[in-house]
Amino acid sequence: MRKIFVFVSVILIVFYTSTFIVEEGQRGIMMRFGKVLRNNNNQPLVYTPGLHFKIPFLESVKSLDARIQTMDNQADRFVTKEQKDLIVDSYIKWSVSDFSRYYLATGGGDIAQAEILLKRKFSDRLRSEIGRLDVQEIVNDFSGRLTTDVRDSLNTGSADQDNLGVILPINQNSMAELGIQVIDVRIKQINLPTEVSDAIYARMRAERESVARSQRARGAEEAAIVRAQADYEVEHTLAEARREALITRGEGDAEVAQLFSSIFSQDPDFYVFLRSLRAYDNSFNSTEDIIILNPDSNFLRFMQNPVTDLGQHKVK
């Protein structure tokens, strides 16, 4: 029984050490004595996801990530065709297209090493493409021609085409030589350098302030016109009111004068008596005033002998 247990254990150990599993999204490179195992065409053996066998203790497997990778690039300064600086922020989507080339070119499938090589080539190609365009062409590139040209040039080693529109053959400068395929290139943001944007903002601010001053001056002018019109309307209304008041007062004075004239023509003595009463009223309406008159003054004749005078003047 013990022998059976030992035999089964040995079988399980051998099976475990002679098999390996490549996970989904990965690829396997077989190593024998530290060297890459190659096929009859001298190409490294690449294992797809699934269960595979190997020679125990002699062979090992190096797993490589087969998923799409995203590489964010640090914002960098580029010069356009008209020698203007732009700060471009971008990223790249890439994946491994040839695992054997990728493994050998990156020192064993090191993603960091792969991105160093990719970033260097990408920066050169993007700088070259931006240098062929002006700012307006770059900003208005809604079709994505710029990024498409950069992607194609990275994959083929050249963005140029012949007259038939056929991509030139892959050369040693392409990412294909590294076993890498660039899937997509995107520009996240395009900015002007700080010193340039500050100058532009200052100019824009000055222009807006000039427009604001012009608007305020126009508003003040219109307000002065409205205020002058309102003052004219007020003065015109007051003048009309004063004119009507003078007319009314004149008409009243005329009626009073006519009334007094009528009274005077009918009874002159009564008119004199009425005028004297009005004079008394105007003279004695204040308790603080003092009037010194001769007792024989004609002004007080109606106060000295009122009965006789009233009878003489026929007061009714």
From TrEMBL:
Keywords attached to this Swiss-Prot or TrEMBL record, sorted alphabetically, are: Hydrolase, Membrane, Protease, Transmembrane, Transmembrane helix
One GO term (biological process): proteolysis
Q: Where in the cell is it found?
A: Membrane
Q: What Gene3D superfamilies does the database record attribute to this sequence? A: Band 7 domain
Q: Which Pfam families match?
A: Band_7
Q: Which GO molecular function entries does the Swiss-Prot or TrEMBL record give?
A: peptidase activity
Enumerate the CDD domains for this protein. SPFH_HflC
Q: Which InterPro entries match?
A: Band_7, Band_7/SPFH_dom_sf, HflC
The protein's topology relative to the membrane is: Single-pass membrane protein
User: The organism sits in which domain of life?
Assistant: Bacteria
Q: What does this protein do?
A: HflC and HflK could regulate a protease.
This protein's name: Protein HflC
Where is the organism placed in the taxonomic lineage, from the top? Bacteria, Pseudomonadati, Pseudomonadota, Gammaproteobacteria, Enterobacterales
Q: Which gene encodes it?
A: hflC2
